[in-house]
Amino acid sequence: MTTETPSEITIELNNEIRTQQLGRALGAVAQPGLVVALVGNLGAGKTRFVQAAAEGLDIPREAVNSPTFVLIHEYEGRLPVYHFDTYRLGDIDEFLELGADEYMSGDGVCFIEWADRMEEVLPRDRLSIAFEITGELTRRVTLASGGRVSQSVLNALDQHRSESQS
Ligand SMILES: Nc1ncnc2c1ncn2[C@@H]1O[C@H](COP(=O)(O)OP(=O)(O)O)[C@@H](O)[C@H]1O
Ligand SMILES: [Mg+2]
User: Fold this and answer.
1) 165 in a domain, yes or no?
2) Is 154 near ligand 1, meaning CB less than 6 Å away?
3) So what's the pLDDT on residue 165?
4) pLDDT of res. 108
């Protein structure tokens, strides 16, 4: 039986392994042109999630670091991956000066940490992932799609999860 995936799903992650599994699963189903907008407080797990997603895109884990001092990291995996940390950026203009528009409209996969700061220039079709810290080792994530590519990826992720649970 298949049930339709809604445009928003909430998942409780009871430990870091769960976060890694979800990240890897997203990497495995990511499609060209996907923009992933990550929001959540410092230490919520955004970078951990991106590292796992990169693994799912066949990029070695060691290659991916928290880009706090580098504003954009590029990795070559199954698809090109661009990882932005906008925490250090002064404003939206600085984000655009990095070429954000070109990256986001290209055929790679973009991960943008602190995406709420750049919301006005993000494409509508993006997968928004909000992290909430619910305990020392637990997180709640809400994934929401905004268009065709992000919904297709969310569907595939949901499918992937229900298969691995059964
Ligand atoms: N369930 C969990 N998912 C993700 N990280 C967790 C979890 N539980 C504990 N942590 C810890 O929280 C921290 C998350 O750090 P990081 O991914 O760099 O956060 P952010 O990029 O959101 O600032 C890490 O130290 C990690 O070990
Ligand atoms: Mg981070």
Assistant:
1) no
2) no
3) 72
4) 97
Please name the helix (run of DSSP H) or strand (run of DSSP E) that holds residue 118, with its range, or none. none
Within the chain, which residues score under 70 in pLDDT?
A: 1-3, 65-69, 166
108 occurs within a structural domain: yes
Ligand 2 centroid to 125 CA: how many Å?
22
- pLDDT for 146 equals 97
pLDDT at position 9 is 96
Q: What's the CATH number where 83 sits? A: 3.40.50.300
Which residue is closest in CA terms to ligand 1's atom 9? 137
When divided into structural domains, the chain yields a total of 1
By the 8 A CB rule, do 111 and 129 touch?
Answer: no
Element (H, E) at 20: helix 16-29
For 25, the domain range is: 8-160
What SS3 state is found at 128?
Answer: strand
